[in-house]
Amino acid sequence: MTKKDLVISAIKLEETPRVPWIPFVGCHAGSLLGITATEFLRSKDHIVKGVNQAIELYSADGMPVIFDLQIEAEAMGCKLNWADDNPPAVVSHPMAEGVALEDIKMPTIEDGRIKMAMETTKQLRADNPDIALYGLITGPFTLALHLLGTDIFMKLMLEPDYVHDLMKFTTKVCNFMATEYVKAGADIVAIVDPMTSQIDPMSFEEFVQPYAAEVFETIKNEGALSSFFVCGNAKQNIEAMCNCKPDNISIDENISLEYVRDVSLNKGVSFGGNIQLTVSLLMGTEEECQRDALACMDTGGKKGFLLAPGCDIPMDTPVHNMKAIADLVKDEMRQGELRASEVATKEVDKLDLTAHWKSDKVRVDVVTLNSKSCAACQYMFKAAEVVSEPFGDDVICKEYNIMTEEGVQMMQTLGVRNLPTIVIDGKVEFVSQIPPLDEITKKIEAQLAKKKQLV
């Protein structure tokens, strides 16, 4: 059984001799080459070299070709903000700036970096015939948000027909990208739709399910397997995701793997995840990474489960941590040693926030994975910033991303359990889902009024 066979068997819900290992390496492969994320993601040669190196270093059974959710948006006119240590972020939304839907150009293979992505896939396929290759496409809802901006959340209620027209268009884009990836040699095409964690099940069923299902049907008809990637606390939509009929769903640490296992297997869908990105992979020791991975493996089992990080791993993830997991996957003796031994839970030092609150100002703390790389976090933090700005010096708005030790400490101290989350003067107010701007405004106004009464 080749590594590709192992992955395909797991996705098809067959018993496997061991759990398949899919390290989600994106711009981290650039760090292996000693170059920035911007240099890496703009060059076929860099991507091929970096991904090939990651495949060898981490003994990967499967690997994404390019982990960049901005390729389609860029090709359709969205402006990007490039960074040294993260994938680029969408910073302009053509339809929010007055461009009509009918004037948005349907992308072709020649637009933006699409041709580069497909040529990269072909080369990686030739270099790695026995590895399962994942072609990642931006999901239709997240792509719609890239084009329209956060106005989409209001239009879901006020102009549903408008949103449906937009979703039909982005679904065509997804079908095009999926077809091109399969033609280029991808074995699995994954819809990566992080913004679906931001909507309720009813909205998901109306505005996401029929369109995602169409893309998965396209992938099936092209002869490939499919996966549905989501990040954030999308627990409320896991069953609906399965109802879209992908072959696999993949989740991050915001959702219990036990819950996803029970729901997905009951629906006849395989599942993957959900090694912690920061506490384990970025900041943990080799043993802590192995223990986290083993807990996932023991929960997932050897039927229908693929071990993977919760998302694209941070660029600066230590190589030795990833290699430790790769070694563990094939070492049953080490697995047994870890199960037999006891370990104390790692304690995180909490912060003293006494001075944090002693002020006539309102503190708006946004706890994120990282707004530079996580789309849901980006839009949540932007919403908090936009609302806070008119209050001037009366409101202090700050992001705490858990890629840093301070961010992890703040998350623990504030009692935040899911990302992204908005905390106002120490009270968790908005969890995972981006609220309407007026709701954030009302919370800030009410807190300011309380503080003025105390003065």
Features:
4-stranded mixed beta sheet; alpha/beta; Glutaredoxin; 13% strand; 2 domains
What does this structure look like?
With 455 residues, the chain is α/β, with parallel strands linked by helices. The chain folds into two domains: 3-340, TIM Barrel; 354-454, 3-Layer(aba) Sandwich (Glutaredoxin), CATH 3.40.30. The chain has 21 helices and 13 strands. The chain has helices spanning 3-11, 28-33, 37-41, 44-57, 71-75, 114-127, 140-148, 151-158, 160-184, 201-207, 209-221, 238-243, 257-266, 277-282, 286-300, 319-330, 332-340, 354-357, 375-388, 405-414, 437-454, and strands at residues 62-64, 80-81, 89-90, 132-138, 188-192, 225-229, 248-250, 270-275, 305-309, 362-368, 395-401, 421-424, 427-431. Strands 1-4-5-6-7-8-9 form a seven-stranded parallel β-sheet. Helix 12 links the parallel strand 6 (225-229) and strand 7 (248-250). It starts with a helix and ends with a helix.
Layout of SSEs?
Layout: H1 3-11, H2 28-33, H3 37-41, H4 44-57, E1 62-64, H5 71-75, E2 80-81, E3 89-90, H6 114-127, E4 132-138, H7 140-148, H8 151-158, H9 160-184, E5 188-192, H10 201-207, H11 209-221, E6 225-229, H12 238-243, E7 248-250, H13 257-266, E8 270-275, H14 277-282, H15 286-300, E9 305-309, H16 319-330, H17 332-340, H18 354-357, E10 362-368, H19 375-388, E11 395-401, H20 405-414, E12 421-424, E13 427-431, H21 437-454
Parallel strand pairs: 1-4, 4-5, 5-6, 6-7, 7-8, 8-9, 10-11
Antiparallel strand pairs: 2-3, 10-12, 12-13
